[in-house]
Design a protein that fits this description.
Number of helices: 10
Keywords: ATP-binding, Cell membrane, Membrane, Nucleotide-binding, Phosphate transport, Translocase, Transport
Organism: Paenibacillus barcinonensis
Bound molecules: adenosine-5'-triphosphate
CATH topology: Rossmann fold
Largest sheet: 6 strands, mixed
CATH superfamily: P-loop containing nucleotide triphosphate hydrolases
Distance between the termini: 31 Å
Shape: globular
Strand order of the largest sheet: 6-7-8-3-9-10
Strand content: 25-35%
Structural class: alpha/beta
Number of domains: 1
Subcellular location: Cell inner membrane
Function: Part of the ABC transporter complex PstSACB involved in phosphate import. Responsible for energy coupling to the transport system.
Membrane topology: Peripheral membrane protein
Number of strands: 10
CATH architecture: 3-Layer(aba) Sandwich
Length: about 250
């Protein structure tokens, strides 16, 4: 599988706190990559560097390179809005807009200039189908997104992210606020979506990483300890710290 994202010598500081230390890795396209590791090890920080969400945090300094399909996303020529269209994100808490289901999904395409009703209708339907929500909402598209359950809201947020046809979908603990059934639905969805999208997910749940991802990266104190295909990392870890973590000795 071709590598879509190439990270080289990445360091990130929150003021004086050195949160990411010399990270280099490749993220293959159309694969789910899981970031695992104990709380505070830098998983979410690294995820946020992939669509420059850290730019919004005062005092953040980034050094090194993040290449997306051959271009450096930190170069001056990159427009952050365009980058975020290519690299969508879903957060821990479902955060639909207080608008109708339809308008949530149509929001991104409208922002990027799609105005034709038929085209919008198609995009909304296609995105909701891809997010495995269409059957549940197709008759209530005008209803408020806030009327949906937490799990449905999260799938709506996935549909909203997919509606602008991104290359990459970032998921930051996207199931940790959900019940087990909704979690399972999202895991099933992610397994389907990776045929079309490159997915990078942060998870506290090692079992989830093992179930869903093709590649896993284990972090500790802002450093990558080990990155490998998921089966190898969980069956034959090379580093004793990985082994200790996955066998539950800490974290
Ligand atoms: N906005 C911020 N300002 C200052 N420091 C931060 C900020 N966000 C994270 N940090 C610090 O950076 C380090 C990495 O945090 P990060 O949230 O990336 O870790 P994580 O592995 O995702 O943790 P968790 O699993 O608990 O979400 C931690 O020491 C954290 O305190």
């Amino acid at each position: 599988m071709k590598d879509l994202i190439h990270i080289d010598g990445l360091n990130l500081y929150y003021d004086t706190h050195h949160a990411l230390k010399n990270i280099s890795m490749d993220l293959p396209e159309k694969t789910v990559t899981a970031f695992i590791g104990p709380s505070g090890c830098g998983k979410s920080t690294l995820l946020r560097t992939l669509n420059r969400m850290n730019d919004m945090i005062p005092g953040v300094r980034v050094e090194g390179q993040v290449m997306l399909n051959g271009s450096d996303i930190y170069s001056n020529e990159i427009e952050v809005e365009t980058l975020r269209k290519r690299v969508g994100m879903v957060f821990q808490q479902p955060n639909p807009f207080p608008k109708s289901i339809y308008d949530n999904v149509a929001y991104g395409p409208r922002l990027h200039g799609v105005t034709h009703k038929k085209e919008l209708d198609e995009l909304v339907e296609q995105s909701l189908v891809h997010a495995a929500l269409w059957d549940e909402v197709k008759d209530v598209l005008k209803k408020s997104a806030m009327s949906l359950s937490g799990g449905q809201q999260q799938r709506l947020c996935i549909a909203r992210a997919l509606a602008v046809q991104p290359d990459v979908l970032l998921m930051d603990e996207a199931t940790s606020a959900l019940d087990p059934i909704s979690t399972l639905k999202i895991e099933e969805l992610v397994k389907e979506l990776h045929h079309k999208y490159t997915i990078v997910m942060v998870t506290h749940n090692m079992h989830q990483a093992a179930r869903v991802s093709g590649k896993t990266v284990f972090f500790l104190n802002g450093e990558v300890v080990e990155a490998a295909d998921t089966e190898t990392l969980f069956s034959t870890p090379q580093d004793s710290r990985t082994e200790d973590y996955i066998s539950g000795r800490f974290g």
